[in-house]
Amino acid sequence: MSEGHPDLKQELERLSFTKAYMERLIDSQEIGQEALKKGQEDTLENLSFKDSSLRYQEMLSHANFMKMSKEQLESLQQLRKKPYFARIDFHRKEKPDRETFYIGKMSLFDRETQLPIILDWRSPLANVYYEGRIGEVSYEALGERYEGHVSLKRQYQIEEGNLENFRDIDLTTKDELLQDSLAQNAESRLTEIVSTIQEEQNRIIRADLRKPIIVQGAAGSGKTTIALHRISYFLYTMKEIFKPEDMLVLAPNRLFIQYISEVLPELGVQRAQQSTFIEFVQKATGIDWHVLTQHEVLMQTIEGNRDPQTLEFAAIKGSKFFKDLLNAYIRLLKKSYQVKEDFMFAGFRIKSAKSINRLFYDEYSYFPYEVRVKKIKSVLQSELRRKKKQILDKMAEKYDEELDRALYGMRNAEKRKIRVSFLITRKEERLAEIKKLSRTAVSRFMKQYPKLKLLEVYQELFNEEIFLSLHSEDSKVLRDMRAESRALFKKKHLQSEDLAGLLYLKTFLTGLHEDDQAKKVVIDEAQDYSFLEIFTLRKAFQTDLFTIVGDLAQGIYNYRGLKQWETLQEDVFSSANYLTLQKTYRTTIEIMNLANALLTLMPENLPKAEPVVRHGETPAFIRKEQGWEAKFLTLLQELLESGMKSFAIVTKSKKEADEVRGHLDSLQLGFEGLGEEQKEMANRVILPAYLAKGLEFDVVFLYSHFHPYTEDSLDLKMLYVAMTRPLHRLYMIGEKEEDFLLHRVSNDRFRKV
Ligand SMILES: Nc1ncnc2c1ncn2[C@@H]1O[C@H](COP(=O)(O)OP(=O)(O)OP(=O)(O)O)[C@@H](O)[C@H]1O
């Protein structure tokens, strides 16, 4: 397409130069300076643009190559195949000329002049590229605002170092690079999207880094992807202050962590901590009791093996009510740190109880209780050390006075001798004794502070007397919750909703260990978090730097999870920016139209997702009748032939996943069942909808047997999650169309095969 383009020659030259510069830089790290000089001559010899681009020649031959870090070198080696993906021509107001900037995954500067050869996609100026406008623009860098004019925005397709194509974009052209990228097939992993980030996504990546953000985004709108790009942007912009290890990414399960972890190295943030909420709390508290996860509870409820009351208990333990209860409990615990007696030593007052309590309750009020106790201990130790000398002097003085009195006041020589020798020995003994006592005096005094054990303290909250002293209005459900919790604790089991309460208490009692601290937190699938979980995380990390992304329409743990984002804005992050992502990139218009029909059945009144223009086949219903397997086999074959790579069979329940796996095993199609703890994902998998959340596949077969989807709000959400997983094709295999609620959508949204 670029054949005959007036800029083709110039673009080819530019690419050759950039690659040559990168090669030189890489070589310079690997070989000596002498060999380098020779290499430079050879490079110049071979470059085709020798005559026209003197400036480039100059840059190459004069380059003063400095040592790079191992990481920089590795990135450079990777990038030489695709040094940049875009260009902008920008005329800054105060500058005489228009400048051209090439944008890539990493910046590259001319080592002599420090002028950019490639601009990092995260740099302030690159924002101009993503903001979408040709014409007058402005950008901010280091707090200053710059204005100027963008006259050209160009995208490049570079494969294996060769310029395949380039095209200019303006307001009317659609983003072909994006279309190409979306048409590709999933290889069971998430990728970086720096070359196709869209305007609404860019706004989220670059939203004020000092403020928390909450993002409501439709299924497939890029929430996970964008949250990870925001970390990359954050680390780039704040590299002086934050290290990747300071970041914590919270994801729903191990499988998901594996799925996203591959995108992290590409974004340069692989060292960020990644965990599930449960794992994080287990590590932070050191509690190793069995945790009954929300996933287990959900499955058991769907399959009818669990008393639905468990859901009510979970809801209570994640609620604002429970937070208030914990606060009342914490106030009670705090009282137990009050000391009654002054700190006395050898009859002297070292520090009064009042001033010790003042330290605990006022001066150190910012610290967790045990830290306060430690601090008080060291204050007492240093005060004692300071006063010990005076005490010893006073004691010695007292004995010396008595000695004087004995020496000069006693007439009887025998008695005087006995007295004097007694006093001398006593003095020595007493002083030695005081010295000895002083070593343990503080520790003895400190014994009156309570030693609270987290797990015990938490269990006591469910003790009838304590609970009712904190909350007198009792009810049956609260009584049942206490009884059920006590029964669980006896077996050394916890409900996953207990973890937030435990972490909350820990925050007050001891605070987090240094290794568990995070300075910036990303929460994916945030709709599944309870109010208390997010509130506690905020409290535990003492930071507002949260990126929270989720989709209420996918809130399958709605019984415990967030029902509206306003709750977070009102009660946790008052300064949060709330942003939405409405366009969806994952799937086709046809699939999204069907999924959108479900949205209208949900009570939340959520806006419909807008698929980015990409058509595909209409979703199909396959009746599960005699011989359906043969139909499935033929279909699979066709799909493979048409280039589809990843396939998932998604069920509502675990039982159905087991059943269909058993069924397909005999056909030896290589479909594997997936579990929550699974770390690898194959290309043909069978999994229940709750596990498929966040993931994507080329082709998805929904399979229903024992548990048809109903119009219950949980079912609607599970079906919505399942339907929005495919990139290209969606099939529904079941006995009746009603099993997928197809009777509630218009006939043209699906077909029957
Ligand atoms: N700007 C973009 N350019 C190319 N691909 C994109 C873009 N934005 C998103 N995608 C792709 O769309 C798909 C969905 O992205 P992602 O999984 O991040 O969405 P999500 O909102 O987290 O989805 P869900 O809520 O359904 O889990 C991914 O394949 C991602 O690579």
TrEMBL record:
Keywords recorded for this protein, A-Z: ATP-binding, Helicase, Hydrolase, Nucleotide-binding
Positions of the UvrD-like helicase ATP-binding domain = 196-588
Report the GO molecular function annotations. 3'-5' DNA helicase activity; ATP binding; DNA binding; hydrolase activity
Q: Which domain of life is it from?
A: Bacteria
Pfam family, any one: UvrD_C_2
Q: Which residues bind ATP?
A: 217-224
- Cellular compartments per GO CC: cytosol
Please give the start and end residues of each transmembrane region.
none
What's an example Gene Ontology biological process for this entry?
recombinational repair
Q: What is this protein called?
A: DNA helicase
This chain's source organism reads Halobacillus litoralis
